[in-house]
Input
Amino acid sequence: MIPGIGTAVNVVTVLVGTVLGRLLGNRLPVRTRDLVTDALGLVTLLIAATSAVAVLDPALSARVGDSAPMLIVLGSLVLGGIVGSLLRLEQRVESLGGWLQRRLSGETGSAERHRFIEGFVVASLLFCTGPLTILGSLNDGLGNGADQLFLKSTLDGFAAIAFASAFGWGVAAAAITVFVVQGALTVVGMLLGDVLPDAELAAITATGGLLLVGVALRLLRIREIPVADLLPALLVAPALVAVAAALH
Output
């Protein structure tokens, strides 16, 4: 199978889902669209929980010890958050969303602009921070097949329908993020020649699960956590595993 086909399919499902969501969303009252967003928030919490339990993965405990996994996740979020905050990643992502809104939709009112940006940011984070994004893209690049990305594409397509009915065309712009992030990871997989060790992958999965909790809190309108500022934690996590393993 051609490397990159999984990402291509994922981009298409996001775009198709967005179109269907817009066609459906125009016929739904605001109250119903808000309810759809709440349902997405609850499902995102469920996905986050299933990812976060990777902190209990036996491979991670065997590599760094029983007490270290929680500290690794904590350290990843703190250090990653500091780096992301200094780099102003959340602000840059929002600026990118605003630029795309002006280019793709033209100048509109501030409410519509905010809705476009929120749709782009939330959809980009949900589509690109899960474990399937990392492992699926790497395996695709390694020539091991794109089955995981095909599964993710199906999930993202349904999510795009719901997101687009609530947030509008900003969700379609998230296809660009999917293409860039998963495309880059696929290339990394082609260069690595092997998948990440189980312990490092477990740490990334658990950390990504907590990032998804932040996305869910935004969807549920509980707290506007700047999740983009925390994205460097996904890079810090495997580095901390290596450090802890050396000290173990």
About this structure: The longest helix spans residues 30-52. DSSP finds eleven helices and no strands in the chain. The two ends are 40 Å apart (CA to CA). Residues 191 and 203 are 22 Å apart (CA to CA).
